[in-house]
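Exam review. A common question shows you a sequence with its structure tokens and asks you to describe the fold in words. Practice with the pair below. Do the first one on your own.
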Amino acid sequence: MVRLLIIISRYILVLLSALFSFVSFKSLKDSNKNQYRYVILQRILMYLIHFIMFAIIYVYSEKTDIIFFYLGQVFYFVLFNIVANKVYKRYHKPLMNLMIFMLMVSFGIITRLSYTRAVRQFYICVFATVIAMSMPKIMEKSKKIRNYSYIFGVLGIGALALVYVIGNVTLGAKLSLDLHFITIQPSEFVKISFVLFLSGILYKSKTIKGVLISGIFAAIHVLILVVSKDLGTALILCVVYLFIVYMATGKKIYLIGGLFAGSAASLVAYKLFSHVKVRVEAWINPWPIIDDKGYQITQSLFAIGTGGLFGSGLFMGLPNSVPVVEQDFIISAICEELGSFFSICIVLMSMCIFIISIRIALNCKDEFYKLTTSALACTYGFQIFLTVGGAIKLIPSTGVTYPLLSYGGSSLLSTIAIFMILQGVYINETKHN
């Protein structure tokens, strides 16, 4: 009976995710005045998806803790929307729905993989949303953020340098700081400080001087990440730098020159770092080394292939056979048990988030906020590309997480902060229209 319910649920989840994707993209075409019905439909569909996932988890596990965990999530998400409506009358509701939808799917799939980690992730989510809720208000009251660009730059370099000196080594790279009561990954927050630094510098000066100063600071950020072997984040910062410089100046020469320099740097990294060689070797042809260097990517491909279009159903696959599946390869777990179709809908929703973010940026009259918002959208979008591309062997694995979906407190905190910054810009811009 349980197996039958799981089989039926996978088709229902695919249908609901497809409808949610359709409604979300449809909402992009209509004006804000006509979005209310789409917002309601989004909420109905995402709560249904959330309910079905946890219903299957409870039926399979028969643990009453699952019921209380599910009800706690529903209570918090409803409360979060109520508070947001009270505090901010004009926030971007479709964007908020997309953020909550991704969190709901994340809690569902992480609970299936590890209940303990899912509970920990939920506590971090509550903390993050409570703290981040104040960001739009801070942005509304303070117009001096753009004046603190050098402070953001120095803080970012200082945080990365601290990790290099005393950080913990994870899978060959120095990534985190152990504060005894909590472990944090500063590079996740440096992505935000880096954007604020670049936006402030290039807002004030789009001349060669501004580009040169921003380039020196950016190079220091990247070099520290490279020597710490956090190459995934280094790549993200490089791309964001090129993007924001092009956005600010409109000169293609910087973009083309940066791409050539980045290609050369990648070749140097391949020559210098053994773990980069391992990942490239596993990407080119993992099958001869399936028991060693190619194990992770081949297990990911097996998981995706086994799931097919509609998935094997929750608890009917073996997603834990993929190393670090909750973090770097969460999309593989979703493909295996919920299906490639469901995973495509997830990627489409990420594209929808990216489009909304770029729209917010393009509608900004304030140049600083335009640069900040577009760069944060680039950060989010490029990280999705790296995560999904690495899981499906489109590109070598970079070890970065899927924002909002993957397990990881620092990633969750920084991504929610990015979403609330986007909301703050949207609220401030629409207030004057």
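Now try the second one, then compare your answer with the model answer below.
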Amino acid sequence: MPVDPSTRRQRHALFLGLLGVVIFSLTMPATRAAVLELDPLFITLGRALLAALLAALTLVIVRPQPPQRRDWGRLFWFSVCSIIGFPLLMTIAMQYAPASHAAVVLAVLPLLTAMAGVLVAHERPSLGFWICGVVGTLVVLIYAILSGSGAGNLHWADLLLAAAALSAATAYALGGEMSLRIGGWEVISWALVVSAPAILVLFLFLAPPINWGASASAWAGFLYVAVFSQFLGFFAWNKGMSLGGIAKIGQMQLLQPFVTLVAAYLLLGETIGWMEIVFSSVVVGLVALGWRMRVARSP
């Protein structure tokens, strides 16, 4: 039976969104592995410079049309949030919190992404969508309080992770909206290239000495966050959001806690307790219900 264009478009969007979620889900375990032996500032700036090099090569080979004047301001804020804000805040937080804890705290991202979609792309989620999102956020906050009690610096890590989630949500909304005009991979490529000179200056003046003797696992984590988290993951994610909508595809992040928890267990040997499993399941269920609610998109 032939598939109508609208259904095909939605399936394509969901596939790209799922691919982006899987790539981003491994960011926290990879960052955790890297930050154990590499400085957080080096990881943040170094991953951006390596990704910018790949982006420059891609733009030179493909030679796409440059962004329009109206998009340069949004590219700037996209760069601030996705290239500096989220990576730096999350990398510092990973010094004080295990990846399994961060996975559940960042489960609030779908709600924040939907809110950013309203402000940036003028999407209009239904009341049921918002109710599910707010309840899910409360559940995540309860988890953060319970798991952080008596843990000292873990409270600071929760604040850093919350700020990182805000940065990521803003970047996702801006990237998804701009991808309608520029293209998914072009958004992250132009943003990396444009921000590269400033990042290089920061790297030369602020980055600490590089620990060249770090283990293979630390360097593997650094390479992953540079090549996949900072660059290739946005290819699929931005395009998926432009096809399926920021709020709708943003709900694909409901799978992220599960993927991250499993990755933290397999790659880092972190313990997954019943608290993580229960709270992740509740949050995923709530956001999945919200994903079924109506979201109107502006033409």
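Model answer, second protein: The mean pLDDT is 84. DSSP finds 13 helices and two strands in the chain. Full marks require stating both points clearly.
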